[in-house]
Amino acid sequence: MGLFSNQFSNVVEWEEWREDMIFWKWTNREIKKGSRLILKPGQDAIFLFNGKIEGIFKDDGDYDIESQIIPFLSTLKGFKFGFNSGMRAEVLFVNTKEFTIKWGTKSPIMIPAPNMPGGLPIRANGTANIKVNDYTTLIDKVAGVKTEYFVDDVRVRIITLLDQLLMKWISKEGKDMFNLQANAYDISNGIRQDLDMETQKDGIAVTGFSVNSFNYPEEIQNTINRNAATSMVGDMGKYQQVSMTDAMADGKMNNGNSTMGAMAEMMMGAQMANQMMNNMNNMNNQQNQQAQPQQPQGGAQGGAAPKFCPNCGNPTNGAKFCSNCGQQLV
Length: 330
What we know:
The protein is of the alpha+beta class. The protein has helices at residues 2-8, 65-69, 135-143, 151-173, 177-182, 184-199, 218-233, 236-253, 259-291, and strands at residues 11-12, 21-26, 30-31, 36-39, 43-49, 52-57, 61-64, 87-88, 90-95, 99-104, 109-113, 116-132, 148-150, 204-215.
């Protein structure tokens, strides 16, 4: 009798363990006399009979099912294993740890912007924390039709809801990028509560939610950067110099192999040389002006215009009024 009993003994344990698996169901097999339950740290075992919870075991260890498990099962306390038959039951193993999900918006979210009726597109990314908290609901809504459940299954559901929730909380807490960043905590907390209400329907709690950053799509950000650079340098001539400097730096970062970088260096060198010549000419003009006798205010003697303005020293080119300061010359 003992020899045949050993042939029927088996082990009930989480056979397909993965770090990203929320639950796994041991099913479609009989639990024989001499079977053992093995629970590892971070796992709970839920015994099911005809879809109903019979008992939940949370302490890790190695248990004899007949003597240590069955006496605690709700409707199977008096079950006796036969010689050639066992107990047809299911065991749902649940991962008890908290999972972290990284998320990002599926499509841009529009925020109000002047002169843009459709709004300005932004994106967001961050993390969410989830954990199983209601075994009964989990079994009724998910485990009843699935034998395994992964973190990515929850992530897909969260991502599906996020765009609508972000639009809701952005309209409440932020009218522009500055306010969005400043109110990121309040936005995150509001979204967590809304998400938790949805995932609780499957026995999953959202224990944390955070928005790491709001940002513009790449093409919008590039336009903003160009406009900011133009505003800082003041005029297009200086903006071109900045652009050439960037290109020259790009050539250096690529070990001098950038053709655009080499061309930029040549153009920058030529502009620097021209600037030096202009500076030298201006110095010579000022020296010549200082060497010439000053003419009376209001014009030159004899009715002829002076070569240089007596007020600011700018070349007059025969004009009656100085083109630089407006001084009357004749």
